[in-house]
Amino acid sequence: MPKKNSAYILDSSALICLFKEEKGGGFIEKILRQAENKEVNLYMPAVQYGEILYITEKEFGLEKRNEVEDILENLPIKILEIDKKISRVAAGFKAQGGIAYPDCFVIAIAIKFKASIITKDKEFKKFKDKVDISWCTS
Questions:
Q1: CB burial class (10 A; 0-12, 13-18, 19+) of residue 102?
Q2: Mind spelling out the 3-state secondary structure of 35-57?
Q3: pTM to 2 decimals?
Q4: Which domains does the chain carry?
Q5: With 33 labelled, which of 16, 17, 19, 129 sits at a CA distance of 20 to 30 A?
Q6: In three state form, how does the secondary structure of the chain look?
């Protein structure tokens, strides 16, 4: 479980498992409560924000996407804009292969903030020597 005053970067898979009520959703609920209580800081790259929206619209339609967007706006998560420096770092991870480009931004930002990644996506395993990963599988 997260330590007080820790920083975490949310991968889109973490919030999607919460929204779809999949295994690991309870873990995400706990993290969100801790963020509401200012015990941890939660961040998410804008790329991941967009990924959640397009996946929701593709699977459930525009109305559900708008609903999810309203929910995201009210969660205690700071959405981070992407700059050139982060893009260069993310590109380096993508060049190594085996991971989706949006996930490379999660890794780059986790390194910048010295934060742990919260994810359900097994593609991150390849980079466990570069960043700390908390798996939302329980």
A1: middle
A2: HHCCCEEEEEEHHHHHHHHHHHH
A3: 0.89
A4: 6-135 (3.40.50.1010)
A5: 129
A6: CCCCCEEEEECHHHHHHHHCCCCCHHHHHHHHHHHHCCCEEEEEEHHHHHHHHHHHHHHHCHHHHHHHHHHHHCCCCEEECCCHHHHHHHHHHHHHCCCCHHHHHHHHHHHHHCCEEEECCHHHHHHCCCCCEEECCC
The beta-carbon contacts of 17-24 under 8 Å, at least 24 apart in sequence, are 17/120, 17/136, 19/52, 19/56, 19/68, 19/71, 22/120, 23/137, 23/138, 24/120, 24/135, 24/136, 24/137, 24/138
* Residue 5, pLDDT above cutoff 50: no
At position 8, the amino acid (one-letter code) is: Y
In the chain, the amino acid numbered 82 is: I
Cβ-count burial 7-26 (b if 16+ within 10 Å, e if not): bbbbbbbbbbbbbeeeebbe
How big is the CA angle at 50 (ends 27 and 12), to the nearest 5 degrees? 20
